[in-house]
């Protein structure tokens, strides 16, 4: 997985969550009949606080993941250095399970074992099931925060600029954001962009509808 693909994941993750949570809060507050100023205040608070929270959570999670990869890499390096025959046997079994036999198997084992880094990388992937690539927690956190703030700000724009029927406009604009994010997901997957766009739109619309319905119930109960 390349750095660009990883950061695409962070951007999609942050963008969807930012748009969904902000729309849900706006729908909930508007559904409760509160003032436009309250909508803007809570929306901005959500964008900044939740955006930072998501970025921090992503940073900590990736740091923990990177520390674990480094721990396992150190362990495998020690095994390759101190128990080369045992590690070579493990490598041979792994490659045999993939269909290599005879001379091709032995040549492949010999080629891999000539590079300690390649050897360790392959053992990390095959024995532990983890990517040997080093993650970039700070960059991922920044991408997540920027995407969250950018997409999460869209539902607020009609309220900030005082357009007529701001909630309807907010829903339409946020729907466009969902479609764009979903389409972007589709471009980097085997799934149709139309399908991922529709899926993302449905998720966002459901979140907004739930928030609106819950707030309407409390409003009717005068809570």
Architecture blueprint of SSEs:
Elements (H helix, E strand, L loop, with lengths): L2 H29 L4 H47 L1 H14 L4 H12 L2 H12 L9 H17 L3 H4 L5 H22 L5 H28 L3
Q: If you had to describe this structure to a student in words, what would you say it looks like?
A:
83% of the residues lie in helices and 0% in strands. The protein is elongated, with a radius of gyration of 25 Å. With 223 residues, it is mostly helical. The model has no long low-confidence stretch (mean pLDDT 84). It contains nine helices and no strands.
Assembly category? single chain
**Could you say which structural class the secondary elements and strand pairing correspond to?**
mainly alpha
- Which percent range describes the beta-strand content? under 5%
Question: How many strand segments?
Answer: 0
What is the chain-wise order of helices and strands?
HHHHHHHHH
* Uncertain stretches of 5 or more adjacent residues: none
Discrete helix count = 9
Return the average pLDDT rounded to an integer.
Answer: 84
Q: Over all CA atoms, what is the radius of gyration? A: 25 Å
* Residues in helix, %: over 70%
**Mind summarizing the main beta sheet?**
none
Shape: elongated
| Head-to-tail CA distance between termini | 50 Å
What would you say about this model in short?
With 223 residues, the chain is mainly α. 83% of the residues lie in helices and 0% in strands.
Keywords summarizing the entry:
elongated, 223 residues, mainly alpha, 83% helix
């Amino acid at each position: 997985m390349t750095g660009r693909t990883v950061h695409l994941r962070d951007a999609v993750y942050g963008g969807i969550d930012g748009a969904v949570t902000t729309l849900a809060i706006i729908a909930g507050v508007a559904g409760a009949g509160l003032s436009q100023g309250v909508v803007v205040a809570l929306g901005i608070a959500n964008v900044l606080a939740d955006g930072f929270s998501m970025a921090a959570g992503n940073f900590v999670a990736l740091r923990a993941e990177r520390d674990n990869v480094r721990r396992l890499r150190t362990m495998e390096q020690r095994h390759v250095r101190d128990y080369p025959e045992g590690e070579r046997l493990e490598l041979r079994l792994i490659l045999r399970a993939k269909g290599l036999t005879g001379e091709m198997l032995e040549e492949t084992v010999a080629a891999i074992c000539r590079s300690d880094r390649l050897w360790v990388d392959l053992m990390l992937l095959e024995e532990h099931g983890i990517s040997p690539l080093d993650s970039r927690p700070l960059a991922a956190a920044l991408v997540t925060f920027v995407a969250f703030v950018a997409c999460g700000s869209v539902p607020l724009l009609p309220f900030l600029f005082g357009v007529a029927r701001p909630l309807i406009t907010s829903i339409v604009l946020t729907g466009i954001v969902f479609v764009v994010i979903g389409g972007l997901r589709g471009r980097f997957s085997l799934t149709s962009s139309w399908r991922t766009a529709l899926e993302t739109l449905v998720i966002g619309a459901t979140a907004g509808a739930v928030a609106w319905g819950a707030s309407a119930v409390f409003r009717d109960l005068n809570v």
